[in-house]
Design goal:
Its EC number is 3.1.4.52. The chain is of the alpha/beta class. Helix content is about 45%, strand content about 20%. It is built from 25 helices and 26 strands.
Length: about 700
């Protein structure tokens, strides 16, 4: 601090000047005002008052010894008794040359004792030296505090690499007391894991750069080893020679453990512990190189559990997770140590096999897997059964790239699943063609919506006297090249691709437009139109507003719109389903539960659903003439519906025998080929006219469509 002329007034240090004589204060101010900010006091009392102001304490007090009232010695005594002013440097000034006051002041902790008169230059030098010395002492105190209370272990060695000091954190970390290590070489801590080359590199870096940082392993006093992160810096003397080495380090055991866990999680599935997709990619790359070099083959087996979604939806994800863990264990037991089992996610697993005659090996392993996974699983206190569909692709026969190999195995798996599941299937070129054809159809279906190739057909619904009650709207795809595409070909594809949302909205909108047209005609104004709603469509966040907007836009009577939902919808979120149905019922819309008896609905929920109708599935109606079980099921459904005050409609009615049985059991609504096939709107309206002009007997026997 030799020249402070460039400092701003705020940056200059504050000094408090105390003297009862203005002339003395003037001398002090004149000497110091250039380099410092100054405050003045003329008595001991005013000095102590200023020091009580904690806004900013002075960096130095120049204090006259002899003052009336309270002497400078007394002021100093009180300052040293106050923790807030204890450390402020003090220069005592006096005209008294006797040693009594000087000794008293120095004993109380005065930093300097100057005899008046004082030259300006002497004063400035003494002030600057004192401030500099105090700053250095503050730094030393801070360094000592850091050394003693640092959370990092600190070790200081001399130029000969002998330990001269360690801190408390060092003692806590290593287990060595200070007396154990002073004078010793740091090799005392060596674990033996650091190589000579690593030690040499560290020494060279310290000599060249004066700094080194890195990881190494040390040994504690109890013999345990641990990893540490260490930084070594050198302290040089004025000649530039190394005088001390300063090493600070921390135990990074937890960091290393976390690093290993993160590394493991990056390559493994957290639920089953199996390798994940990333690890599988790396393993496949390595395996392809090995089999190429060894003239072997590789088999990629893509596995998907059959009906796993039902387990999650009905029993909960915790049961599903427990099942996946056991499946993973059984899969590992089916393969050799050098084969791989990985989980891609959900219920999808991959097995990698390599060797000679790999097709035979893969068939044996797949058979073993199908057998093992079809056995019961013990989950909690109950048992659970599942099975798996397996697709197998071979390298290099079926593909020479990982992506293609995985795709082909996936295609083979879907083929196995389409065959009923619990099977394995090898990839073939025909499957590839099927996959391309499927993709082509998906693109064409997307275009069909834009090109208006979709059309609604209507299948009539009648009462027991053949009087028209309404119809079910059924979508048909009139392809310009393929002709009429069967719904079973494109509806599942629409569900899988998500196009069912666009198609479903188009059906709803078109059906409501038709309802509006019917309301304007006498013969059709009371007909109810049933529209199928897929689970995906129903579960859209804006489905309620979609229905409301369509009903309002076409200005139809909502009571004539019946939404047909399936039992599979009950598996999603029953409370949300009930809430949506209740909101739509408030609009006046009706609900029919389609294909009743074939799905997974729970009877305890059935009474809570705001339904208007149950629809008996055609699979029960088909064999009622010969199957006593179907007769019993239908009788039960009709009786239950009557108890719940619900209408019942039977679909798939094809013979008079079926119709008569249903009437005898109390069913009053019918749909099926006996009454009419799905037909275009013009033909449907003509059929309605015919039914309305035909005289029908009580048994309905005078008219047959």
């Amino acid at each position: 601090m030799m020249n402070d002329t460039n400092l701003t007034q705020h940056e200059k240090l504050l000094i408090l000047l105390v003297d009862d004589l203005p002339i003395n204060l003037h001398v002090l101010v004149s000497a110091l005002k250039t380099d410092f900010r100054l405050k003045t006091a003329t008595s001991g009392a005013s000095t102590l008052a200023l020091l009580k102001d904690q806004t900013e304490l002075p960096k130095l007090v120049i204090l006259d010894v002899k003052m009336p009232g309270m002497s400078g010695i007394e002021v100093l005594r009180r300052m040293r008794a106050d923790p807030n002013t204890l450390a402020i440097p003090v220069i005592l000034v006096s005209a008294d040359v006797s040693e009594q006051n000087e000794l008293a002041g120095l004993n109380l902790g005065a930093d300097e004792y100057l005899i008046k008169p004082i030259s300006k230059d002497t004063l400035i030098i003494r002030v600057r030296n004192l401030i500099r010395r105090n700053a250095e002492q503050s730094k030393l105190r801070l360094a000592g505090y850091v050394f003693n209370y640092s959370g990092e272990a600190i070790m200081i060695t001399d130029r000969n690499n002998h330990i001269v000091d360690v801190n408390a954190a060092f003692i806590k970390l290593t287990g060595y007391d200070k007396a154990d290590v002073l004078g010793s070489n740091p090799k005392l801590l060596s674990s033996g894991r650091t190589t000579e080359e690593e030690c040499r590199d560290m020494s060279e870096a310290i000599l060249k750069d004066g700094f080194w940082q890195g990881e190494m392993w040390d040994r504690r006093k109890d013999g345990s080893v641990y990893p540490k992160m260490m930084t070594v810096s050198v302290v040089r003397n004025r000649a530039g020679d190394i005088e001390f080495h300063l090493a600070n380090f921390v135990d990074i055991s937890r960091y290393k453990e976390s690093e290993e866990r993160i590394e493991h999680l990056a390559h493994h599935d957290p639920l089953t512990g199996l390798p994940n997709r990333l690890h599988l990619q790396i393993f496949l790359e390595q395996s392809m190189l090995i089999v190429t070099r060894m003239s072997e083959q590789l088999a990629v087996m893509f596995l998907d559990l059959d009906r796993f979604k039902n387990v999650n939806d009905t029993l909960g994800h915790s049961v599903g997770d427990a099942l996946l863990i056991q499946v993973a264990a059984r899969l590992k037991s089916c393969v050799r140590d050098y084969d791989a089992v990985a989980r891609l996610g959900g219920d999808e697993f991959v097995v990698i096999l390599r060797g000679h005659d790999i097709e035979s090996v893969a068939a044996i392993v797949a058979t073993k897997i199908n057998l093992h996974l079809s056995r019961p699983f013990l989950i909690g206190t109950g048992t659970l059964r599942t099975s798996t569909s397996i697709g197998i692709a071979l390298y290099p026969d079926n593909a020479d790239r990982i992506d293609d190999l995985m795709k082909n195995a996936d295609r083979a798996m879907y083929f196995a699943k389409s065959e009923g599941g619990n099977k394995f299937c090898f990839f073939s070129t025909a499957m590839n063609l099927h996959a391309h054809e499927k993709l082509k159809m998906e693109n064409q279906l997307y275009e069909a919506i834009e090109k208006q190739e979709l059309q609604l057909y209507y299948q009539i619904q009648v009462d027991n006297l053949y009087q028209p009650l309404g119809a079910e709207a059924l979508v048909r795809w009139l392809h310009p090249e393929r002709g009429q595409v069967p719904p079973m070909q494109f509806i599942p594809l629409a569900e899988e691709s998500g196009l069912i949302l666009s198609i479903g909205y188009w059906v709803l909108d078109t059906a409501c437009a038709q309802l509006k047209a019917w309301q304007n005609a006498t013969l059709t104004r009371d007909l109810i139109l049933a529209v199928n709603v897929s689970p995906k469509q129903f579960c859209q966040n804006d489905f309620i507003s979609q229905v409301r907007d369509v009903v309002q836009r076409h200005a139809i009577n909502p009571a004539l719109l019946k939404l047909e939902i399936t039992e599979s919808l009950m598996l999603i979120n029953i409370e949300a389903v009930i809430a949506t149905m209740t909101s739509l019922k408030a609009l006046g819309v009706q609900f029919s539960l389609d294909d009743f008896g074939t799905g997974y609905s729970c009877l305890q929920y059935l009474k809570r659903l705001p339904l208007d109708q149950l629809k008996i599935d055609y699979s029960f109606v088909r064999d009622i003439a010969t199957d006593s079980s179907d007769k019993a099921i239908i009788s039960t459904i009709i009786a239950m519906a009557q108890n719940l005050n619900l209408d019942v409609i039977a679909e798939g009615v094809e013979t008079e025998e079926q119709r008569s049985f249903l009437i005898n059991k109390g069913c009053t609504h019918f749909q099926g080929y006996l009454l009419g096939k799905p037909i275009p709107i013009d033909q449907f309206e003509e059929l309605v006219k015919q039914l309305n002009v035909t005289e029908v007997g009580a048994d309905g026997g005078e008219w047959l469509p």
